[in-house]
Predict the structure.
Amino acid sequence: MTTAISVRGLSVSYDRKRILSNIYLNLEAGYIYGVLGPNGAGKSTLFKAILGLIEPNAGEIRIVGQPIEKMRKQVVYVPQASEVDWNFPATVLDIVIMGRYPHKKILQRLDEQDRAIAQAALQEVGIEHLQARQIGELSGGQQQRVFLARALCQQADILLLDEPFVGVDATTEEHIIGILHRLAENGKTILVVHHDLSTVGQYFDKIILINQRLIAAGDVATAFTQENIAKAYSSQLPVLHQTGLLE
């Protein structure tokens, strides 16, 4: 198996507060990983470290054996909806075709091939009919499809999605997970920050369970155990018992 992402001894702090501590991961290509843990566990921080957006206190991350600076166009990030300025004066097509910029040199213009790739991405997520709409006019599910289309347009090998199912309807959620499974079958590596523990077994091949430190990583069947869930969500055990996720 090809190692898509290698994390060795990663530690990250903000304002002298440790967010991630000594994380080791070896993530293989061709799988969908659910990144799980309570609020404040460091899930988004892990993504930012992989993307090279923050400087770790210790450790290193390699993308297919290379530093992120050499592999940036092969990694794409789909942000949380709350991080996006939905009043930005851009159309759906404007946003989606931005996925082609990592493949362009400075001042190089987009061409017909880029537009064809963008159109194909719009069709795959089912929003080609919305391409002229301003992004702020869309529903939550439609907005999430826009940013997935932009990710598809980049044609990257590694996709990082931060809570893609928050605020979307059931149809969109089902459509998105179907696309992600097809991408994984074609050798892509996909990491998804996710909160709904009831769908973990249905959605993911493998999980990364963290709460500032690594609790477990591996196949859902062996890593997503009640013992590991309890370790990760120790402060939320009463809620988990009420939902039936813990006996």
Summary: The first strand starts at residue 3 and ends at 14. The radius of gyration is 18 Å.
